Amino acid sequence: MKLAMAAFTARGAALGKRLAAALAAEGEDCSLSVPARLAPALDLPAMDSLADWTAREFARADGLIFVGACGIAVRAIAPHVRDKLTDPAVAAVDEAGRWVVPLLSGHVGGANDLARRIAALTGGQAAVSTATDVNGLFAVDQWAARQGFAIEDRTAAKAVSAALLDGEAAGFVSDFPVDGALPKGVTAGGANIGFSVTVKTAPLPFETGLRLVPRALRLGIGCRRGTAEETIAAAVDAALAEHGLSTKAVAGVGTIDLKKDEAGLIAFCDHRGWALNCYSAEELLRAEGEFTPSDFVKGVTGVDNVCERAAVLDGGQLVIRKRAADGVTVAAALLPLRVTFE
Question: Where does the Cobalamin synthesis G N-terminal domain lie (predicted)?
Answer without folding.
Answer: 53-133
